[in-house]
């Protein structure tokens, strides 16, 4: 397919076709280059060359390199937040929903490890409205997870001697920082490491009752 055929054109049908080809190639190329060379060292020209599109195509979908990076993460975060909301709103006992929520974080991260690792390594380089919007959306995910932990505490199935905020930050931070030490080709896959983190997390939720802390 020629480059011209993949660039955005008028009409809803054609726009959807472009989104499924040019846009996806841009995202894939940016993810690979950001992972290999770093966000700061990767130019827009290198991204469009690798994606085999023009700069006009990239700027049709993304207003800047910063928006491209945040868009990669925000789309995954929106998907993950929706999955967590469905789990949290389910009818299962709270301990089962907490376990399912923790497993979902691991499984979703393993499915999109390259994109999420790029974001974890590059987010600190951004300081604009896109980064701020992403932080707000991430906070909503954190609050939703924390609310589920609090529900478990109120139901008497989760320890109350540690605050729900500490519990939430500990688990999500541990998983979010796994990229700093995990090495492919080791004795465990990323998914196996994640499942072990879930085992530690779920196993550590119950403990002898102590003085409750504010959550």
UniProtKB/TrEMBL annotation:
Keyword line: DNA-binding, Repressor, Transcription, Transcription regulation
DNA-binding region, residue range(s): 43-62
One annotated GO molecular function: transcription cis-regulatory region binding
One Pfam family per UniProt: TetR_N
Protein name: Transcriptional regulator, TetR family
Domain HTH tetR-type span(s) in chain numbering: 20-80
InterPro entries according to UniProt: Homeodomain-like_sf, HTH-type_TetR-like_transc_reg, HTH_TetR, KstR2_TetR_C, Tet_transcr_reg_TetR-rel_C_sf
Keyword NADP included in the entry's annotation: no
